[in-house]
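Name: histidine kinase
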Amino acid sequence: MVRLGLIIALVAIVGILLSGFAAFRIYDQEAAVERIALGRAIDVHASQVQDRLTERELLGRVASGLFRTPAIIKADMLKPLRSSIYAFKTDFLLASWVVRLKGPEFTAAETELANAGFTDIKIRHSDGSLIDPATQDQPLDVVMDIEPRNDETIKLLGRSLDDHPVLGQMFARSLADGKPEASDPARLQVPGAPIGIVLAAPVMSEDATEAVGFITFSYDLSALMLTNDDMSLFSVVLKDPRQANVELVADEHGKVSERHANPDGPQPTVIRTVTFGDRDWSLAYYAKVSPYVRAQQVAAIVAAIGLALTFIVCGLFGYVTNSNIRLRREIEIRIGFERRLTAVIDELNHRVKNILAVIQSIVTRTLRHGSDMDVARELLIGRIHAMSNVVSLLSESQWQGVMLKGLFEARAIPHADRIAVNGPDIAVSARAAQSLSLLFFELASHSDEGLSLVGKHPHIVASWEVTGDGADSMFNFRWEEFNTSEATRRPDSEFGVILLDRVAPEALGGSAKRYFTDVSYVYELTAPMETVVDMNERDRTGQISAPLRRS
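Structure predicted for histidine kinase:
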């Protein structure tokens, strides 16, 4: 046996070493191939993004070059350009003509907007507040024409964009440099308000000495970034030029949102720079699947094939060893089952003896010498039925306790429908349940005795509460029969007196008292909660009824 074990160990070592070497070589080659493929895909994507950005910047330059007219304060300046700008098919969301107006020119601009059929013609700030021409000593950049025109976009006509937190800076840079400039990423002023970029191209005067206005094009950022589908090898995000730790990312629906870059999370695989609007933009590429994952998978397959034969040989030895261990476990389970069965039988014998002792006491006390046989028979049947009911409830719960309100069911005690029950539905122990079931039956069986004398049934209220916390908590029970007096209520039987005053209180480790008030008969029982619940009994029963486990 030892020699066989050494041979199997030697074969296993040689097989593992050869398989590991082959897997390492395959992993190295596949990783190199995947890295090259990912790099090429990223380079192609960055080149396509740059081409799209160049087309859009060219559109701005061409559109601004076509503006060679002195009549710049017009509300239809984009009309001659519509066929040209749409021919580029650059999927812009909004194009606008922004003219530089001085204070004295406000009236002419408002007149032009009114002649074009617009109702809101006052020159306003970007937030909608009116501008007083007398207070303006510098030209303002005001929207005079827009494309496309709809109920949302025409609200921008007549608005000055100089005080806009993003577009104002863009116009200032374009005016200073005299060439197209791109804005920072921001919410576009179009329906749906996606995050995008605005390109402003300055329109020069006839003598090319100063800018008289701007042609602007607004683009959805997701279209510029060429976001990829689920089959792409990578995901691309745009680094926010305003905040170094913020990235702009598009979801599967093309909606762009901001997210904070996690310095401790995955880092970009590659960063590429593209140029648009006289600015550099950084595209960060994150590999969706690490180039090393496929290499690991292929290497794992090779290693699995190499180890298969080794495992077959070693598996024979493992099968024999496992069979021996399983046989030993089955023997241990069988021994444990027999011990558990013995404990269950002992516990069952103990409970049966207790029940028989209680029944013997009931029969002896009920059928005492000189008692009325009809009454005794009825009480005996009721008391045994109460015991049978509580045993049924305990069997259903595997002797781990009975819900207290279940002892007040109609099958357990007489006149249950006339008893008002109040109190938390606590689970009492098996011993407490037996005592309380007989106690409730004894109280309920005498509750209708005064009917023939007072002419109506007594009203019964059974209530209990738990006071105190932890080991000091107490169970307080109160039974009160209204419409009953000492003159109309039949005295309790000998067995009932013993049960009410001694047996039940002693079984619960508490005390009891009964008395008559002016309008009712009262029975009160007080006992510690630790004897009413009896967690030791519940734990012991739970251990016996718990399923067997393998050691």
